Amino acid sequence: MPVASSTISGALADGDPVVLRDLWHRYPSAAPGSWTLRGLDLSLAPGELIGLLGPSGCGKTTLLRLIAGFERPSRGTVQIHGREVAGEQRWLAPERRGIGMVFQDYALFPHLDAWANVCFGLKPGDNRNRAGWLLELLDLTGLERRYPHELSGGQRQRLALARALAPGNSVLLLDEPFSNLDVEVRLRLRSELPAVLAECGASALMVTHDPEEAMAICDRVAVLRDGQLDQCSTPLELVQRPATAFVGRFVLQANLLPVQRRGDRLLSELGPFVLDSAPLPASGALQLLLAADGLELLPLADGRCRVLGREFLGYSWLYRVASGDCTLRLRLPLEQDHSPGLACEVRVRPGQRALLYPGAQPVRMLTSPHPL
């Protein structure tokens, strides 16, 4: 990507680019009491890229549509740069919010060439220099007269990004922007996105289904479940201390094991654990979270576990192993080449960290980690 001057990038207005307070939403056709979003609070800081992560139907795209103005909140407020644009007594149309949106299917105008697409949102008399600068920044120089069908998928996505930024929008909403691209182009474009936003003085919210993508490029990751925000943290915080068992399972693809209380001990399929300091929760179901690379596999002819299958991840194997009523995920080095059906035992690696939920409390094994 060519290095371009940022002297014509848009300046951010006063206040956080986006602030959502107690946001609720339900579609008219939904059953009574069925909410798409429930009491959501979130703020986007200047220059920040937040990834919106969660399973299908959790409310990610609806959240973008509420910020953009394509949907009205049932309750709560939306503020853009300190100005309320949606609330009980306030509603601002999408075209007046100063927000750029990049869709999964690009949504380019097929009858307009690349230059006309980029300039579409500009008003008469607006300086066209920004459009040219964006085409250079996004490596589209020389393609101005090509129509969308004459561009590759990656070029169309870059063009959609240029069009969203051309009017000087300092807030971008991106809905699965890389999902339709092949792997090589997707990896390249997603790595370039933070630099493009920085050059343009823009902040962004990006919907994705891919935890790896969100963790790779986003300043913070917001994890949604059933219309609620489970956690919004930096990728490092998310990895080190998932706020809920769902975050650990969905984002980190870690193992969740049910545990039973026995005095001050926690009995699990893999052995006994104990809390380091805090007392056990008084009641309720308990679960242990164990990373896939925190477990070891030991082939044993009379082992009580069985290898169900495996996936090749390039630098490691991801095994699925049946252990009692649990199916465990183990990330193992390539030299540990085991076939489905193998009898084995699973043990916790020495010194491996585990967390107890609810509460994300650190726990340790009581005994040395031998096959159980």
Question: Can you describe this structure?
Answer:
It is built from eight helices and 21 strands. It is of the alpha+beta class and 372 residues long. It folds into two domains: 18-239, Rossmann fold (3-Layer(aba) Sandwich); 253-365, Nucleic acid-binding proteins (OB fold (Dihydrolipoamide Acetyltransferase, E2P)), CATH 2.40.50.140. The strands form four sheets. It has a six-stranded mixed beta sheet with strand order 6-7-8-3-9-10, sandwiched between helices. A six-stranded antiparallel beta barrel has the order 11-12-13-21-20-14. β7, α5 (183-200) and β8 form a beta-alpha-beta unit. α4 (153-165) runs parallel beside α5 (183-200). The longest helix is centred in the middle third of the chain and has 18 residues, at 183-200. The radius of gyration is 24 Å and the shape is globular.
Helix content: 10-25%
Mean pLDDT: 89
Oligomer: single chain
Order of helices and strands: EEEHEEEHHHEHEHEEHHEEEEEEEEEEE
What secondary-structure arrangement, pairings included, does this model have?
Elements: E1 18-25, E2 37-44, E3 49-53, H1 60-68, E4 75-80, E5 83-86, E6 99-102, H2 114-119, H3 129-137, H4 153-165, E7 171-175, H5 183-200, E8 203-208, H6 211-217, E9 220-225, E10 228-233, H7 235-240, H8 245-252, E11 255-262, E12 265-268, E13 271-275, E14 286-290, E15 295-299, E16 305-312, E17 316-323, E18 326-333, E19 343-348, E20 354-357, E21 361-365
Parallel strand pairs: 3-8, 3-9, 6-7, 7-8
Antiparallel strand pairs: 1-2, 1-4, 4-5, 9-10, 11-12, 11-14, 12-13, 13-21, 14-20, 15-19, 16-17, 16-19, 17-18, 20-21
